Amino acid sequence: MKRLHPILRFMRHALSTPWHVRRHFSPQALRRIEAAIANSERLHAGEMRFVVEAGLHPMDIIWKKTPKRRALELFGQLNIWDTEHNNGVLIYLLLADRDVEIVADRGIHRLVGDDGWESICHHMEQQFRQGAFEEGVVSGIAEIGALLSQHFPTQNEQRNELSNRPVVL
After folding, report:
1. CA 16: distance to chain centroid?
2. 105 burial via Cβ count (<10 Å: 0-12, 13-18, 19+)
3. Which domains does the chain have, with CATH numbers?
């Protein structure tokens, strides 16, 4: 993430509204993202969640909360860490900072590592810069799904431990 002057970052977040999320993610797009997660999870024993947030609370900006820190908070709040095989993955998009973060539980993270997640984030951000937000998320889901399929192939009685529905904040 490119560092902005604190006042510019504050203004960008203050002016980010739910309209900005709807502008890039229509209800139909969110349903397609949900379907992409569900389809991916049929091919592996992992769990994925997608969260998109327009901007942070002004106090979070004053206290210099980073997108990574916010993603870690949401990872815990949404219980993504609590999957049977420790293979939950959060894709977090903070529109005001134009940043995507991937947080993965220890079971999959130890196999993929920071470089693997950063590579996926980079590919997604390239598509976002071209205005292809839905496509960027769906391609990220596909890349993460391929890694989960490789390391956590589907099992006999597979259950969906986490909701596939995108979270809009």
Report:
1. 18
2. buried
3. 6-153+163-168 (3.10.310.50)
Q: 87 near 103, Cβ under 8 Å?
A: no
Q: What is the pLDDT of residue 2?
A: 57
Give CA–CA dist 151/138, Å, rounded: 20
Q: pLDDT tens for residues 50-99?
A: 999 999 998 998 898 999 999 999 999 999 998 988 999 999 999 999 89
Sheet holding 167-168, edge to edge: 99-104, 88-94, 47-53, 167-168
Rounded (5°) CA angle 128-94-129? 15
The three-state (H, E, C) secondary structure of 125-141, written as one string = HHHHHCCCHHHHHHHHH
Enter the tokens of residue 45.
């024993």
Token digits for 90? 């959060």
Six token digits for residue 100: 């995507």
Contact between 25 and 52 under an 8 Å Cβ cutoff? The reply is: yes
SS3 (DSSP) at 163: coil
- pLDDT of the residue at 123: 97
For residue 50, give both structure tokens. Answer: 């997608």
